[in-house]
Amino acid sequence: MAMIINGKEIAANVKREVAAEVEQLKAQGFEPGLAVVLVGDNPASRVYVNNKKKDCAEVGFASYEYTLPAETTEAQLLDLVAKLNADPKVNGILVQLPLPKHICEQTILHAISPSKDVDAFHPENVGRIMIGDYSFLPCTPAGVIEMLDSIGTEIAGKHCVVIGRSNIVGKPMAMLLLHRNGTVTICHSRTQNLAQQTKQADILIAAVGKADFVTADMVKPGAVVIDVGMNRNAEGKLVGDVAYDEVEKIASAITPVPGGVGPMTRAILMRNTLTAAKQQLLK
Ligand code: NAP
């Protein structure tokens, strides 16, 4: 039976640390602020935005929500981003994805000032992550590293296999593991003999987006298994990419879904906003 890595608990610790620092900043008369921009009425995005506002309240940040109609033009959204870039009350800017089809996501993400880009999606921050000289952590991958650290998993020298190569999860995940001296294999939809690759993993990270994708026969006994996936199964229940019931019997440690990587992603966003605020305060 695997040890269950409790993302909720670890995330609560991260948020407690952030809250303690926010209290000190407030005592000096400085209240960090996060602006969250939502365009359109995607129900999942609405839930994410509400959660971010809740997290801001929990750690003591001011949160500024901008809800714009789905017909908002790219120019109007760029105009808002420019205003937020210039607003000293706003330390971090988050534009909730996906955006409506007529707005180019890249154009918007590239317009956010790199110093307020708390999602770390701007090419300048992505480049910094690549060379290992960064202050904004890619939220989900950094949350995974925090979980591995919390259970004392040594990454250096271990074979880490990441399934998925997206810009948001797979690629930055591989980079962070590499910076920690893991030996990293990245798998994707064109990988041949996937199970042969995943069975080599001491640390296996699934970021595919397919329910029950990682089965027990793909996992080396004793591996640490991190499930980034968030999928709805046939009953509408939130599940990960890993066939949890069978894999937890052979893994040494495993993250549940829900209550695993998800809360960590949110906690790291709060930490990034604090980092942004402190950097802007020191300018
Ligand atoms: P994505 O952009 O769709 O990427 C999925 C990756 O999986 C792609 O690289 C794809 O390969 C690969 N893949 C698909 N089918 C495969 C197969 N049969 N064999 C091997 N690889 C395969 O998704 P994402 O944004 O990285 O997200 C992945 C999952 O994590 C989703 O469920 C998402 O909801 C979840 N997620 C969770 C959090 C969190 O906080 N917990 C945060 C972000 C994302 P190709 O590149 O070849 O297409």
Evaluate the radius of gyration: 19 Å
Instruction: Sketch the major β-sheet.
Output: 6 strands, parallel
Percent in strands = 15-25%
Mean pLDDT: 97
In the CATH scheme, the class of the largest domain would be Alpha Beta
CATH topology of the largest domain: Rossmann fold
Question: Which series of helices and strands comes N to C?
Answer: EHEHEHEHHHEHEHEEEEHEH
- Write down the domain tally: 2
Number of strands: 11
Shape: globular
What is the level-2 CATH architecture name of the largest domain?
3-Layer(aba) Sandwich
How would you classify the helix and strand content by structural class? alpha/beta
Describe the model.
The mean pLDDT is 97. The chain is an alpha/beta fold and 283 residues long. It has a six-stranded parallel β-sheet with strand order 1-11-8-7-5-6. Strands 3-2-4 form a three-stranded parallel β-sheet, with helices on both faces. Helix content is 42%, strand content 16%. The site of NADP nicotinamide-adenine-dinucleotide phosphate has 24 residues, from helix 10.
Task: Please specify the SSE layout and strand pairing.
Layout: E1 3-4, H1 7-27, E2 33-39, H2 43-59, E3 62-68, H3 74-86, E4 92-95, H4 105-111, H5 123-131, H6 139-150, E5 159-163, H7 170-179, E6 183-187, H8 194-198, E7 203-206, E8 224-227, E9 231-232, E10 238-239, H9 244-247, E11 253-254, H10 261-282
Parallel strand pairs: 1-11, 2-3, 2-4, 5-6, 5-7, 7-8, 8-11
Antiparallel strand pairs: 9-10
Helix pairs in contact: 1-10, 6-7, 6-10
The site of NADP nicotinamide-adenine-dinucleotide phosphate has 24 residues, from helix 10.
